[in-house]
Amino acid sequence: MESAASVLPVVRFNILGSLEGWHGDRRLRLGSPTQERVLVTLLLEPGRMVPMPRLVTAAWDDEPPQTAGHQIRKAVAALRTRIPGGSSLIVTDGAGYRAVLEEEQLDLHEFGRRAREARQAVAAGRPAEAVDHLRACLDLWRGPVMAGAGGPVISAASAALEERHMAVAEQYFELQLELGQSGDLVGPLRELVTAHPLRETLRGRLMLALYRAGRQAEALEEFGRMRELLVEELGIDPGAELTRLYEAILRDSPEVAPRVPQSVADRAALLVPAPAAQPSGSEPAPCTLPYDLPDFTGRDAELARLLKVGRGAIGERARIVGVDGMGGSGKTALAVHAAHQLAADYPDGQLFVDLRGFSPGEKAQEPGAVLHSLLRTLGVADDRIPDDLERRTALWRSVSSQRKLLILLDNAADAAQIRPLLPASEDSLAILTGRVRMLDLDAAEWLSLGQLSADDSTTLLNRMLGDERTAAEPDAVAQLADLCGGLPLALRITTARLRNRPRWTVRYLVDRLADETRRLRELSAGERSVEATLRLSYQAMEEDQRVAFRLLGLHPGSTIDVHSAAALLGAGVHDAEDALELLLDAHLLEQHEAGLYGFHDLVRTYAMSVREAEDDEEAAVERLVSYYTLATDMACETLFPGRSRYGDPPASGGPELPRLDGDEGALRWFDREYDALLAVATQAGTRGLHRYAALLARNLLFYLDLRGDYEEFRVVGRIGVGACRQLDDPALLSISLGNLAVGHWWLGDFQDGITTAQEALELAAADDRRGEAMCIDVLGLLHGALGNFDEARAYLVQGIALHQELGSARMEAQALDNLSTVETWSGNYAEGARYAARATELNRSLGDRSNEIASLTWLALAHLGTDEDERARACLAQALELCDESRKPANVAVVLAHWAQVCQRLGEVRSAAEHAERALELVSAEGTALRQASVVNVVALVHLRRGAPERAMELHRHAYELASRLGYRIEMARALLGQAEAARALGDEPTAHTHQRAAEELFDAMGVSPEGRRL
Q1: Which of 330-351 are b and which e, b meaning 16 or more Cβ less than 10 Å from the residue's Cβ?
Q2: Which residues contact 374 (CB under 8 A, 6 or more apart)?
Q3: H helices, E strands: number in the chain
Q4: 3-state class of 472 per DSSP?
């Protein structure tokens, strides 16, 4: 019994003629002409991703609407609805769509399968079986794709399929004639000859069928008609093969008489007629390939792919492979290297043509001139080559269809230049190179060349300069490779200069190249120049693309996304993306990942060198700075709930901002954009955009605090203060000074921090209550670090009252945290716990994870002070749940250290040791001296309690050195007390007494209670 699945109707498409879609016996209604064109374009390349630009061109030719991309998506959605199982049949694939079908679902698939089976049958000496397969192929053919109404893109693909159809037809009739058929073939042959009157091979089959059917006179008349037609249409006489057939029929030669079928296995490779005018065995096949570089280096993956395509099975896929890349990336060298390795696989010739699409001082070659050269190279006499492009292309297809050729079309300008030059035979291979990927060249597979890796660049330099010279200056060689940016042309130019200047060292040339303003001039040798190479790509663009190229060169980041590009260009996001994609296609931009673009260093230098006065750079930079200020505002609001925005909210109609998916999305955006943000903030200040510079710096400080990068925090803080000093905005200057004071605290410059915070407070005290509250907090923080606990307490209590009055919950929580710290250090553990608990409540209500970690930690320390180990453990467990080592890693180290302390106190020795070591590793790698001192002291205590006084002494000494350098008195005192206990455990009572007394003096000066002095 059949399963239900086995009798379900299958969707099938027929595209070899008018488009048909069937679901079992029911014909599908596939929708509008646009939907049909989209579907056919996908079905012409089953299993391969068809990019959006190709679909747009196929649907609307050269005049797509503004909303073309949107309409393509709508068309795909409609097709998925109309076709049963359409969602699995048309799938989204990257930047385009892909048709996924089984072989029996598409007539094109079946056509290809039957043609392959026919070839296999011929090769095995089974011509009758081959005829059956070929007959099935011909039955599938109903005419041109979409009946010739599909527009240029589909028509070009249809023309290639028509060539395959004719090759099948010609082979079918040849085999039928070999099998003794003749009279029955005349009618079908006449129909095909009428449809394709210029195909000499087909006319020859008709002549032979007529002759073998006893109609010699008609056969000779066919030759006369052919000669008249060729003279009239192409201005040439019939070819040698047809002429020989005519003469054989005229003489009743035995070679054309009916005969017993013979093996035709020697023709198994092609479903095309026997080669005409093939070179004799004594004549070498033409080879015009250039010299292969003996020092060719790298490109292993790309070379392997070229060789795989070149040696692939016939008919499995289109044998057209393109290599695209920026000027100087080594496209020609790779293609020539591959062609030399493939030469033996293409015995009828290996032809090279420089199409001069991007050649200095030269015009791109016209296809007609190239065809003339190719035909002459293959032995076609001048008097047989037509004058016009159409007839010359027809002759080329006829000649190339009978050969197994490798054709390297180098330095192509566009697809229009390439199409007439492609060989007609499925056995031939065309390798193309160009600076622009030709997406409208159907059935081509493309490989993009990026930069050579650092290792390959160095290897190439070694091979060109010699091991002795490079071994003498390995560091300089590595720098030279880096300055050349992995560009083979630049590498070859520099080595040529060094070889021509034997007294130059590699270091000397590196120093010359280090000056970016003259780097392009240095990368020139003879007629070769990186600048000239880039200039050709630049000049080939339309003016609006050149303007976009110049303006994008102002972007200081290593990556450019569509939103920042839109801001620079003063355009919408979709227009900006189009501009980026065009520059990407021209290989003047690179794509690091989907949606992110960047300049090669040398290309950026060139972009800066071609700036023009009318570009209005000032306005472009201001748009970029404004965009980044608004974008960082948005990211900060996502990451730091309760944060106050400074100034008025942005007016409507501003730049389109990126979509950030929660905390992680905002943090990824900051990570990716940070270098650009820092450069833009600096650039804003130098261009007089001081308010933007100050606001952008403020936003960056929030991010840097989260990442725990406090050296950079202070650098950016100074940028903000410098910008504010140029403005008449005391409130903003006060905020910026307060932030800089926090940076001083983190780096242990407490006195500088107090001076800075005092200036900020004086500015804010006049009429900025929020600024005043913040500055008071910072002063409390700094005095606490210096051990001035009474002053710290007074400032923080005042600050908390102000925050409560102003309703600033986030700032209140931070001040409460700092007050909890002071009380816990002082030994007032109950007060410390009360303030930390309140801070935790506020942070939790705000969703501020980072500050909640801090408040939970101080709550745990207050509990430890009162020997409530289990409560401390519960608080630290909650803190650990929230921890992420990528966010404030030094604070995470504090949590881990105290977790180790709790574990040790509860007898969990192994866990204590593991967490103590991880805390030490983390704070050593990521923490400032401020955090290192406190963490090292806690870890030392864990070692002391587990019976390792030597290690404890070592760590406490290190903590003391760190803390004393900063004047961090609480940690100095704790380090001294720890050393005293370690010395006592080691039996060194005098040393213990000395350290104990020094610690007590510090504790007395700070006002720490006896309870606060316990370790």
Answers
A1: bbbbbbbbbbbebbeebebbbb
A2: 351, 353, 396, 407, 421
A3: 45, 16
A4: helix
With 0.85 as the threshold, say if the pTM is over it: no
Neighbours of 154 (CB within 10 A): 24
Q: What is the DSSP letter of 93?
A: E
DSSP for 814-870? HHHHHHHHHHHHHT-HHHHHHHHHHHHHHHHHHT-HHHHHHHHHHHHHHHHHTT-HH
For residue 955, report the phi and psi dihedrals to the nearest 5 degrees. -70, -40
Q: pLDDT exceeding 90 applies to what percent of the chain?
A: 33
pLDDT 10s digits, 713-739: 999 999 999 999 999 899 999 999 999
Please name the amino acid found at residue 514: A
Place 836 in a pLDDT band, splitting at 50, 70 and 90.
very high
The C-alpha atoms of residue 518 and residue 121 are separated, in whole angstroms, by: 66
- For residues 849 and 667, what is the distance between their CA atoms, to the nearest angstrom? 14
Per mean pLDDT, which range of 227-231, 566-570, 821-825, 917-921 is the poorest? Answer: 227-231
The answer to whether residues 284 and 350 touch, using CB atoms and an 8 Å cutoff, is: no
Closest alpha carbon to 552 in 474, 487, 606, 478: 606
HSE on the CB side for 668, CA within 13 Å? 8
Nearest to 624 by CA among 546, 553, 542: 553
Please give the angle made by the CA atoms of 131, 133 and 136, to the nearest 5 degrees: 110
Give 14 or 641, the one with higher predicted confidence: 14
Q: Rounded distance, CA 779 to CA 765, Å?
A: 14
List the one residue out of 489, 492, 481, 493 whose CA is nearest residue 456.
Answer: 481
CB of 567 closer than 8 Å to CB of 623: yes
**Structure confidence by residue, pLDDT tens digits, 915-964:** 999 999 888 887 889 999 999 999 999 999 999 999 999 999 999 999 99
Distance separating alpha carbons of residues 245 and 485, to the nearest angstrom: 61
* Residues composing the chain: 1015
CA pair distance 49, 43, nearest whole angstrom: 11
Residue 273 φ then ψ, to 5°? -65, 165
Contact 818, 777 (CB under 8 A): yes
- Residue 592 CB contacts under 8 Å (≥ 6 apart), including other chains: 559, 598
Q: Are 171 and 272 in contact (CB under 8 A)?
A: yes
Alpha helices per DSSP H over 288-356: 300-310, 331-342
The three-point CA angle 148-149-153 to 5° equals: 85
| Separation CA 838–CA 823 (nearest Å) | 14
DSSP 205-243: HHHHHHHHTT-HHHHHHHHHHHHHHHHHHTS-PPPHHHH
**Residue, of 875 and 386, whose pLDDT is higher:** 875
Rounded to 5, what percent of the chain is helix, strand, coil? 65, 5, 30
Round the average pLDDT of the chain to a whole number and report it.
85
Residue 447, strand partner residues: 323
Give the model's pLDDT for residue 698.
94
Three-state SS at 200: helix
